[in-house]
Protein: Ig-like domain-containing protein
Amino acid sequence: MYFFFYKTDNQHLAISYSPNKVYEGQSVTLCCCSERLTKSMALWRGLDTLPLSSKNDTKVNCQKFMNFSRNDSVVYRCFVVNKSGIFNDEVQIEVSYPPDIPDQNIIFTENDASRTLQCLAHGVPSNYTYGQWKHQSNFGKHIRYLNSCADGRVILPEITNKNKRYQDSGIYICTASNGVIASTGNSFQNGKIFVTANGPPIFLDKIEKKQYGDPRKIFSLAFVVYTKSEIEHYTVKPENTHDVPATIQMTSLNSTLIFHGTEISVEAIEVVLNFKLLSYDNSHTYSVTLCNGHGNNSFVVEIKPLEVGEIVTLGSKVAIVIILVISAMCVPVAVAT
Structure:
């Protein structure tokens, strides 16, 4: 068995590279130089089991790399053998590259009053400058700008009304730079955070209600709901009496809603509740409640029955809807087929 002892006196040996500052995508030349003629000279990369190159009876051994990448940021070593023994020298090459900012998915609940997002920049060097955050809808419409903290965080302005915290949903775009220009020519790089701000169902009042209270038929009450989670329960409760049996139909559609002062398109649900009216003669108010996994909201509708034989024209005796937020118990959803 043989043991090799490497001498650390490298006054006659040096390993170097050019250019002095290495950026990702550049060509790099690595050279090992000895003042004396060596029997052999080898260049090694990291802990590789085979040398990059090896030469005999030489003073210089150089290796050129094309398209140097961040994965090439390792220690490079030069080993030489001469009459005095085995010598080595090493150098660490650090590759500079612009920050990568991975996408994130963040979920807030209606109880999260304090909401903070972090721009996760990873680059070399690791000193970053952060730009303004952009908040846009899931359909790409601009909502607002937000100032970044020095460490890349953004603290969302607090919304005291829990029923309004859904407005923080959307796509947040952060920007960061470490001074390294990307191959695209951009100094600042972007990252996206997809935020879902859960909360109770929100009733949208921009759908035209064309249902009429004909007591001889099943009444169909249609309205539009914005919710980020599934509708789990619903109730239809006439005033001063028990819940009435009802079936539910739900259809996805796009609607509009105000987010922080900007009207945007949102994915919503058209809900149709089918139930029988209580009376042929008198109008009644019905409390309609929808529940998802994050709470419930309700509205009250007054339905006036039509007299038998009355001719209904568009715009006469329509259902009158008054939106109220109340608390109520819910029953499991049984979706009509």
Observations:
- Residues 1-8, 311-329 have pLDDT under 50 and may be disordered.
- The domain at 6-93 is CATH 2.60.40.10 (Immunoglobulin-like).
- The chain has no helices and 26 strands.
